[in-house]
Amino acid sequence: MAGTEEDAVAAADDALYVLTAVLLTPAKFPSVLGDDYPEACAALGLAPLADGYGLVLGQDGEGARWTVVIDDVSLVAVAIASWDCGMEYDLSPDERTVVAALPGWPLAVAVAAPGVPAPHDPGPEETDGPALRPPDTTAWGPAQRRLGADEIALQWALWREQIDDSEFAPAPEGAEAAGPGDGGAEDGGDAPAGHGGVRRVLAEVRAYVETPPPLGRVRSSFAAGDARTLRADGPGWSLVARTDDIAFVLLDDEPGEVLPVGRGPELPGLLEALDKMAVRPS
Question: What is this structure's pTM?
Fold first, then answer.
C-alpha cells in the first residue's frame, strides 16, 4: 500500500502526494513490465543501472499522475517494509536523488490522494511525451501471464494443495520422468502429458544455466524452511518453483492454464543450479 496523507516529495516544482512506491532492481521489479530487469527499465525509458531504482507513484496538487524515479533504493525499500508492517513512513527523498519525473503511472494504483482532483494524466504542455500507462492485462498475454506467475509465487500453498502428486506417472528405471501419455527423457520432470510447451520451457531453462540470460530473468527469494522460491521468465513463458518441491509453468499460447511439473529425477538438480545463478535480494 502506501504512506500517509502527509507523505510528499518535491518534483517538478510541485508537491507530489505519495500513494505508493515499488522497487526496480535486478532482484525485484514489477514483472508486469517485462521478462527481465533491462526490459522493465526499457519500458520506462531508463538505463538498467546495476543498483536499480526506486519508483515513487503519486499525484501533484492538480491531481495529475507522476512517477518519480530515484536512485536511493534503500530509502524506498525501508518505506515499503514499514508500510507492509502497518507502520507510517514519511517517504521524502532528497531532490538530489531524483533521476526523473515521468508523467503517468506504469502500474495500476487503486487509491488516490485526498483533497485533490481525481487521478489524470498531466496535460501535454507539462510533458515531453506520452504518459506512462499500466500494461493491458484485460486479455491473456505476456503481462497477464507474468501477473499469474506472481500470484502463484505469492500464494504457493494454495496452488500446491490443488495438485495430487499421484497424478504424476513414475519414471521407468533408467529414464527421465514424464507425465501420463507421452514425453520421455527430455522432460526432466513429470510434465502434464508430455506437454510440448513444458518441454520447451525446461529446455530453455537448462540453457540459462549454461548461458546466463539477461539480468533478472532468474530470481530467487525466501520461502518456508530452507527452501527458496524460484522465478524464471522467457519469451512466451514463466516458471515458478520451490527448490524443495515442484514447478508451475504458464505459457502465452495456453491462456489461463497453469501447468504443474513434478519433481522427477532431473528437476531437483535443475532448480539447484538455477538457484545458484539467480539474482537475490540484497
Answer: 0.85
DSSP labels, 135-188: PP-SSSSHHHHHHHHHHHHHTHHHHHTT--GGGSPPPPTTS----SSS--TTS-
Give the Cβ contact number of residue 220 at 10 Å: 21
Which uninterrupted H or E stretch holds 192? none
pLDDT in tens, 65-109: 999 999 999 999 999 999 999 998 888 888 899 999 999 999 999
Sign of the four-CA dihedral 125, 69, 66, 93: negative
Task: Look at the alpha carbons of 48, 49, 51, 54 in this order and tell me if their dihedral is positive or negative.
Answer: negative
Q: Specify burial of residue 50 (Cβ count, 10 A radius: 0-12, 13-18, 19+).
A: exposed
CA atoms within 13 Å, Cβ hemisphere of 217: 18
Coil, strand or helix at 261? strand
Neighbours of 47 (CB within 10 A): 9
Mutual orientation of helices 196-210 and 267-277 as an angle, nearest 10°? 40
